[in-house]
Structure formats: structure tokens, C-alpha cells
Amino acid sequence: MEIDDTVDVDESIVVNLNQTRMQALCEYFRKRKLIWIIVLIIFIVAIIAIPTILVTVNRGKGEKTSTTQITTVEILTATTITEKTATDELISSVIINEKTKWKQSAITVAGGNGPGDQLNQLATPWGIYVDDDSESIYIADGWNTRIVRWKFGANTGELVAHRKLQGSNINQLDQPFDIVLDKEKKSLIICDVSYRRVIRWSLQNSQDTPILISDITCWGLAMDSNGDLYIPDWERHQVTCLQQGDTEGTIVAGGNGQGNHLNQFNQPHYIFVDKNHSIYVTDYKNNRVMKWMKNATEGIRVAPGETSGENPNSLIKPMSVIVDDVGNVYVSSKNSHQITRWSPGATEGAPVVGEKQSGNKPTQLNCPHDLSFDRQGNLYVVDTDNDRIQKFVIDRG
């Protein structure tokens, strides 16, 4: 008997339908698996990426903070530099007037080790020149017959001009009374009293010492902004102006014999010249300071003297004179051992440094001679009989 294995149409359709469903189901699960794989990959990437992003963000914040801090430091530094520059400019342009005060205890900046000829000593110094540019003080060391230079803060001086044991008197000194530094020509101009002359002493060649003017008994020296030299002649009772290249000079004050009239002097000593080319002269034996304006025929008394010692603030035997920015006159007096300030129109001076009694304490002077200011407004005094140079620091309090 034969078996009929033929599949009818309905059964074939069912089989095909089942196969289609199976394929669809497999495709469905295959796609779901792919999706889960993608999700898993995304999850893993997220786990790795998020900490990296956080680190980057924090690092960026740190860099911004550092940059801000650096910028702040730079700004503060710039501000500090600006403030320092402004302070330096302020210090270099101090205005000295009738309200200016100085600390009463002075600093010894040269000498002060007793009279002697060692480089840490002075012997009866007379004149000084304070050079702010080189931070030095040039000193006419009278009885040692030499010029010494002391750097600011130094314990000893440096010999720059002196009496030579051999050679002609052209390049020798004998009792220098005062000095001026000619920066343009790099030389000193020296009042050489015993030889009755004014000479130029080169700082580069000690053999180069030309005589600028002779037959003159000078005590002090001053130079104006044009390089013209002013020389008091205390034997002829006059002031001579020596211009560049001139060897004779022109009388610009006095010259009318010895006397006490306004057109006369009686042994003029030190001299100061201001920016208007007016000269101030200590008229030693007339006990006064005279101001002669340019081209004037007589002087003006700016520090009137007294002929007696009854007034403790009177001016007796004035030695040196300097003038501040507003016309106040500062005078050293041989007999009072003080430095006094004379305001315009004053009939007596106001002591600014020194005591009534002479002495060698930091607050005392003994026969003070030459005076000078530096750029910071500090006052320098040649304390002659104490063989030292005293610096009175300006009081900014």
C-alpha cells in the first residue's frame, strides 16, 4: 500500500508562516542585542568621559585663578613701582621753606676722629661741595692742604688734590678754603688762599692745573648755571665774576672801598648765587648778609646784623650763606655756633640747628663754616673746630 506524503496547500502555508515568524523573532532579538551593546558602550564611554571633563573644568578654573592671581601681583607690583618712582620724584624736588625743620641730632658724614692727616680725619675743614649725582662730598681740608672726597656712607675719604713735595707751585696747594665741582669739565675749581689765586684741578690729570685768576684773596666760591664763577676778594672788599675764557674778571658787587654802606663790603667771605643770578654775600665785619641782584649798583640787607651780643639771635661774624627755594637765608655764625634762618623782612634770625654753647655732641657745633643742601633737603654743615662734617636730616614728621 502506498503512502501519500504530499503536503497540501494549507499545510505549506502554515509552515512558511511559522518560518517567517521565527525569522522576524530572530531579527527582533538581534536588533535588541545591538541596541543593548550600543547602550553599554555609551555607558562605558560616559563613565570614562565624565571624570575627565571634571578634571579639565577644575584645571581650567585653577588656571583662571592662577592667571588672576598673577595679574593681581603684576598690578600690585606696577603700583608699587609707580609709588616708588613718585616718591623718588617727590624726594628729589623737596621744597625748603620757613616751615622746614631738621632733626637736631646730626650724623657725622666725614671726619670726627680728631684732627689729623689720616684719610679718616680732617684738620680745620672750611669749604664743601655736595654732589648728589656721584653721591659724594668734596671737602677743602684746610690745614691738611688737600681736597678729599667722601662717598656717602664711607668711613674714610679719598685724596683727589693735595700739596706735592716736589714740583712748581702751579700744581700745588696751600690752604684751600673752598671748592666748586665743574661737572662739564670734570674738574674742581679751588680757592687757593696762600698762593692768592683760583685754579682748576683736573680730576683726570693732576698735572693739568691751570690758573683761572691770580692776585686775588678769595674765601668762598660759587658758580651759576652758565658756568660763570663768582669770587669774593676779602682784601679788596669786592666780588669778581669770571666768565668762561676770562682771566681778569668783572666786579659785580662792592669795589667801592672798605665800608658799611650798601655799595660796600668789609671782608666778604662766602657767597651763594641763585637761579636769577642774584648773589648773596656774608659781609663778615659788617655783621650782615647782602643780596646783590644782577647789574645792581648796591646791595640789599637780607640778614641785618647787630654790633653787640645782647640779642642772642643777632648776626655776629657771619661765615657762610645758602638760600632756599622761597628766598629764606641760612647763615652760619662764628660766634653763635648755630645755623639761623632769616625770612624776608626779618630783623632777627631763628635758630634751626645747633646750640647756643659750642661743643662736640651731635646736637652741637663749634665755629661752623660752609653750608650746603642736598636734593633731599638735608643740611650739611662744616663743623670746623670739631674737624668734621655734620649732616642734619630733614624732619618729615
UniProtKB/TrEMBL annotation:
CDD domains in alphabetical order: NHL
Location of the region described as Disordered in the Swiss-Prot/TrEMBL record: 344-363
CC terms in the record's Gene Ontology section: extracellular region
Keyword Lipid metabolism in record: no
PROSITE patterns reported for this sequence: NHL
NHL repeat locations: 357-395
Keywords associated with the record: Glycoprotein, Membrane, Repeat, Signal, Transmembrane, Transmembrane helix
Positions of transmembrane segments: 34-57
Source taxon at top rank: Eukaryota
PANTHER family: PEPTIDYL-GLYCINE ALPHA-AMIDATING MONOOXYGENASE (PTHR10680)
Protein name in UniProt: Uncharacterized protein
Annotated organism of origin: Adineta steineri
